[in-house]
# Entry
Amino acid sequence: MNIIRVLSPDVRGKIAAGEVILRPASVVKELIENSLDANASRIDTDIANGGKDKCLVNDDGHGMSRADAPLSIERYATSKITSVADIDSIATFGFRGEALASIAQVSKFELETSDGNEGTRLVVEGGALKGVYGSERPQGTRIKVSNLFYNLPARRKFLKSVTWERRLIMELVKTYALVCPRVTFSLLDGGKAILSLMHSDSMLARAKALLPRDIADHLEVVDFEVGRTRITGLLSRPDLAATHRFSHIYVNSRPVKYPRLYRAIIEAYENPKNAPAFAIDIKAEPQIVDANVHPAKTEVKFKDERYITDLLVQVIKRDVFKRSVRIDYENKTYEATGAPQAAQRFVQDAAIPYGEDKVASIHDSDEFWQLHGTYILAQTKSGLIIVDQHVAHERIIYEKVMRGRVQSQRLLFPVTIELTSDEHRVYQRTKKALEEMGIEFKEFSSNTVIIDSVPVDFRIDREEIAGIFGELLELGDLAGERARIAQVVACRGAVKAGQKLSVLEMQSLVDRLFATENPYTCPHGRPIVVKLTLEELGHKFGRS
Ligand code: ADP
Ligand code: MG
# Structure
């Protein structure tokens, strides 16, 4: 039976194109992922000359039939998805059916496979099938990629030193070995074993086989499940003193680069001296993960990122710092959240601490820059903060108007607004609250009002003022809630993205932001501050 199908052009178009094989490590990555997808319990990798001359991966997975084997090297041939709908629920590593085809194009390629009934061997050169033979081999697949880029000399020259390429492959094998502890892995380089990992029953056991004791002994096992999300893995205790490069994030066992999650973890450790060591696997329904954003598949994105980072921070507080935290997300579903208050409260509980970066230290510095008229960059003791000017201002105004007794300023030119009869009804309902918040009205005729004062801090024009009523109207019944009205007012009154600010204005905005009760999330639950520590920068530049 043919299990591998060629994807229709319609599906192909939807898939981020261009699987790019950059270097030997990308070959090894694709081959190991295929072996894992084939349910292998043992994966042996054998390289020569840092993988430049040979990358061979042998597994004991389910293998391929005689009919399927030649299809596996055709572009867009995959056994893993068949329709556009499937893209939303990817549960395997591969799904594009591009990897083997791409690799076979740029190498001398040999595939030997057996599904347990019949063995097949294919020989391919520069993408052209040279021969199909029978083979005697046990169930599983062995793919040998020789002379990578032999037909693309410029690409081959671009490869780095043998040592460098070998190290990348070594790191890669370790990365998969860590998240698949039940699989036996080995790595040979030039015939010499450089890694040998017997199957084990936990990530911790695997980590112990990979890490020096002074790190392995400081790891805490976490396993936390809420709703249909599960976070498992290892996190170092705060007293870890050793330096290391042990920072792995996986999403549904797929190793990913996810700077936002990385930052959330570092932040949860409250500026530790040494970077925390961690390997975290976040298991979530495939539907809430978009794995199709990058052809190399190292980037995924949670549709509800905030929820996941909050959970992660809570887990660290609870299981690593042993603090009692209240996790009130039990029944959350992944539909767009219609409850900003709850989300806000949750974040407040998590209280991501920027302690040392509070007002005082920021005030010491007059280093403020505005980026694209939208973000304020400010130097802090431990690095850099990036502030979204609009949401920062929104937060300041929101808290001010919620407290009431807001100072107003008279508008030079009062704004006359004609309201529709619906808007007028909303106006009547909310007038009192709006006036307490510093917006003052005069009634002119039946549906026309004049606004002659707004809160002192407002950056507002005619359109924005008129917009307040439209937005309040949209709130329906909720327009009776003070917090909702305050959200609308704050959003309308806040400085917009794209508005130029002077250094003094930026400084004042940042200072007032850090004087609010909750400087880190805007009234709608969006983040306000992103922090980049010197440590993270050092990490990115390979200094640590
Ligand atoms: P993808 O993994 O995206 O489906 P690949 O080009 O990596 O695309 O592989 C194409 C197909 O070849 C896979 O869908 C799978 O059916 C088959 N295949 C590749 N490697 C193996 C393997 N080690 N064991 C069994 N089947 C494999
Ligand atoms: Mg694949």
